[in-house]
Neutral zinc metallopeptidase
Amino acid sequence: MRLNPFNTNNINVSSSRGGGGVGKAGGLGCGTIVLAAIGYFAFGLDPFQTAATVESVQQQTSAGSDQVNTNEQEVCTASPYATEACNALDSLNSTWSRTFDQQGYGGSFQQPALRLFAGSVSTEGCGGATSAAGPFYCPANQTIYIDTSFYDTLERQLGAGGDFARYYVMAHEYGHHIQTLTGVSDQIRSAQQQNPRSANQLQVLMELQADCYAGVWAGKNRNLIEAGDIEEGMQAAAAIGDDRLTGGRVSSENFTHGTSRQRSEALRLGLQGDDRKCDDITQLR
C-alpha cells in the first residue's frame, strides 16, 4: 500500500522500553480473557496464552518506570516497522477525521496516541502488559500499543506477511478507538456486565466491527492499494481467527474475536468503504 510519508504535526507517537517489570494492573479483574470488559482490546491471540499473560501481569510488581521517547521524528525513523506504523497512523487520522465530518458522528473527532514499546509497557489507566499480550488499545488514555516484534510473529508463525497485513493490525486497533469515540465500546461493556453469559458473543461483535473499520480505512484509500494487498489482509484476518488460533481446544461459545471466516468477511465488508455497513455485523456468522 503506497502510503504518504508521515507528518509529525498530524500524529502523536512515542516509544518506550520497559523499566524492568510491569506493575499490577488495577483494571484486570480476576484473570478473565474477555479483554474488552477489563479495558484492553487485544488484536487476536491464543486465549490460553492471553490468560497466562493476564495472570503474570497481575502478580508482577514494578521494578522501574518506562523510558519514554516523545521525539516523534526519532521514534518514527527508528526502524522500517516504526516508519510504517507512523505512515499508517497519519493516514488513519486523516481518513477518520474526514469520515466523522461527513457522517456527523456525535462529539468531536480526537486522534489516538500510538506507543511503540519493547518487552513490556505501563499504561495510564489499563495497567501493565508484556509483548505476549500482542497489539492492544487502551480506551482509558486512548492509546494504541504495539511491540513491532509482533509483526515478525505474524509472518513467521502465522504465515501472514506483507505491509498490508501490518497496516491491518494498526487499522484494527484504530477501529477500537473509533468505537470509543462513538460510544459503542461503553455500550458493549455495559451489556456484558448486565448479561455476563453473552459477554464473549458481544466481544466477538466488537472485534468484528473493528475488523470492518480496518477495511473501511483501506476502502476509502483504494487508490493507494497495490496488487496483492487485499490478499495479504485476508490472509492475516484468517490467520488470527479464534478457530485457527485455538486449534479446536476452545468451543465456539468461548471465542472472543471471531472465526477466520468471520474476520475475513468483516474486513471484506469494510473494504467497500462505507463505515455505516459496520454498524450491523451480526450477519457475519
About this structure: The longest strand covers residues 113-118. The chain has a mean pLDDT of 81.
